[in-house]
Amino acid sequence: MSVRQAGTGTGAETRRTGTRGEGERPGAAVAALIAAVLGFFVITLDVSGVNVALPAVRGELGGSLSGLQWTVDSYTLMFAALLLSAGALSDAVGARRAFGWGLGVFTLASLACGAAPTLGALTAARVVQGSAAALMVPASLALIRQAFPEPGVRARAVALWTVGGAVAVAAGPVLGGLLTTTWSWRAVFCLNVPAGLIGFLALLRAARSPCRPAAFDLPGQLTAVLALAGLTFAVIEGGHGGLTGTVLVAAGVAVVSGAGFVVAEARRRTPMLPLELFRQRGVTVPVIAGFALNAAFYGEVFVLSLFFQEQRGQTALSAGLMFVPMAVVTAIGNYLSPRAVSGYGPRTVVVSGLLTCALGCGGLLAVDTGTPSWVTALLMIPLGVGGALAMPALTSLMLDSVAAERAGTAAALLNTSRQTGGALSIAVFGALLADDFAWGMGESLLLAACLLVATALGAAALLPRR
User: Fold this and answer.
1) Which pLDDT score, from 0 to 100, does residue 378 have?
2) Of the candidates 96, 197, 103, 195, which has an alpha carbon nearest to the alpha carbon of residue 139?
3) CB contact at 8 A, 142 and 95
4) What's the whole-model pTM score?
5) Does residue 2 carry a pLDDT above 70?
């Protein structure tokens, strides 16, 4: 099938970029899928492995709890803030090329993280990692959209893409804990290198991608970065130091920049985020639900990683093993989600996933330092299962709701909301832990559960029954 037949570009674009039909390059679609899955794998592996290594990082490099939050959020913040421009860049230069750029920078930044001499240097390298990850995610989904134009086949490909992330969630804590315990936290970042190299080899066999002219939206990008950075800074530092003048200024910058972003996008002829996308429920619901799911999942992974090691006295390896049952079931749920959507419709799957995740947060409220490890591990399973059911359905719903040429932008919007949810939850939950860990952990779980239930009710009201 040619690129024109797939609906991903014009004939002129095909001639200009040299795109060949999938039928002219055996295995091109499979190669694109392998590269996309491995890219998402290394991005997720980095997050899940680093959470378990945080106490070891503090032990060697020093720093406070807020410093650890910045180690995580410096990555997530740049990831979220640059995703929208990255989606437009992916559409402009072609998904294959954009993905290759991102994968190369991400791999090199991972090596820099592993060699960081100070917490500040580690945070700076994490900023570069997050920037590269922002370019990779929308490009990876655009590769899938290009390689699999038929919706049913594409839904299964998206499910495999999400399984790649789920496997990384499973492998990250265990490998991160094992390497941290037997060698050093620095080895955690080296896990990205072999996967990155394999991803490059697969990308070489993928078909070239069409290009769509797109101007860089500098006002929108600057206001987006300032809004997210200001909000994250205000939450993290305000939670630990109170409402100082610096915190109030950061909050003001976030509000003004957020308003400026909306105005800039409304007035620009070629915005990086076309506001008319939000008129479609198939876009609005995934954006809100993706935010809620990542806020609950990554916020609680951050809290539980610290809880296992700093409150229960477990080793990094033991803490990593606590996540294995949840992650294994999550991987299975990601694969089964498209079948559930086919049988029951996206509305039922999304709402059920959100409520299951909320149930998991509620069950963990009973956990304390005396709870047996196996009970804690079992109580974590619904948190992962709920997200595993909902996210593939939300991703497919999002991609099916937009034209093929907007695939990169749509993927970027969805993942911006997800990463913003993760960054803000780590900032908020970390602030809650500052004075009383047990109280803060309970409050974070309750807050996550309420957010998920409210989102489930909204999704049930907005999505059609089938």
Assistant:
1) 93
2) 96
3) yes
4) 0.73
5) no
